[in-house]
Write a structure and sequence with these properties.
Blueprint (H helix, E strand, L loop, with lengths): L2 H15 L2 H5 L12 H13 L5 H14 L4 H7 L9 E3 L2 E2 H18 L2 H7 L8 H16 L2 H5 L2 H5 L10 H11 L24 H9 L10 H14 L7 H13 L9
Antiparallel strand pairs: 1-2
């Protein structure tokens, strides 16, 4: 199949799946609840962090998590009683202690930088050839510095961001950046201006990877950073200005043909 033929097929799938109804049953619906950029940033980070497993469970648990923040993420990060969050399960292996760890770091971030976008600029992510990995690495360091040594000895860091950032596919983090950077007026919010859609990398989950291999877009067998780079390079041939628009096509087709209704991923 030629690139032209492949692009035509993927563009047709984008038209099918990149629709407002997509957000009704997808984690992106949660940051879409807000209008303040800081609320959108925090909701994007937290919700994407727990976006693995069956989608109904993700949506249920994301709603509960934001309720713990009074449905005011930015206000709670800056003023809320983080210590009051108990040890209850938030989502699968993500517990209250992990949420406290993340919120403690985010409080430091917003007090020092004002927004996640400004932090991304300050840490050099927006000028990097690999923005998600630069930002995730810097954020992981900030979270560690903001928490006590005892908190860092728990499994909090690895539940919030993977330990092997440099080699991880960073599926959930790349997805959050897609929400924040792409401004399509349909699904993604595009509240950032410091990054361009052309700089984004595909959020690689099981569905996207399987469809991409079937379509000849991806050869690498492991779902890791190298696979993300390979697939994104292929998609940039088709759409240099906005390669991650094909996330809708690949994920939507993969979910509907597999029949699982899952949002499986590794970090």
């Amino acid at each position: 199949m030629t690139d032209i033929e492949l692009k035509e097929q993927l563009d047709a799938l984008v038209m099918k799946y990149n629709v407002p109804e997509f957000a009704d049953n997808d984690p992106v619906g949660f940051p879409r609840r807000f209008t303040d950029k800081r609320d959108i940033e925090i909701a994007s980070l937290l919700v994407s962090t727990i976006a693995w497993g069956q989608r109904p469970m993700i949506l249920r648990d994301a709603d509960r998590m934001l309720s713990k923040l009074g449905n005011e993420p930015y206000r709670f990060v800056c003023e809320g009683d983080i210590a009051s969050i108990g040890e209850e399960n938030v989502h699968r292996t993500f517990f209250g202690r992990h949420l406290r760890y993340y919120l403690t770091g985010l409080r430091e971030l917003y007090l020092r930088y004002g927004s996640l976008e400004d932090f991304a600029i300050a840490c050099g992510a927006t000028a990097s050839e690999a923005p998600a990995w630069q930002l995730a690495s810097s954020l992981r360091s900030l979270l560690s510095d903001a928490n006590t040594a005892a908190q860092c000895r728990l499994d909090g860091p690895d539940r919030c961001l993977p330990s092997a950032v440099d080699t991880s596919a960073l599926k959930r983090f790349n997805m959050a950046l897609r929400w924040l950077v792409r401004r399509d007026g349909i699904v993604d919010l595009g509240v950032w201006s410091a990054l361009e859609p052309s700089q984004l990398f595909i959020p690689l989950d099981v569905h996207v990877a399987n469809v991409s291999r079937s379509a000849g877009l991806l050869v690498r067998k492991q779902n890791d950073r190298r696979a993300v780079e390979e697939l994104t390079c292929a998609l940039r041939r088709l759409r240099p200005d906005d390669p991650t628009i094909y996330d809708f096509a690949l994920f939507g087709y993969g979910v509907n043909t597999s029949g699982t209704g899952a949002a499986q991923s590794s970090q």
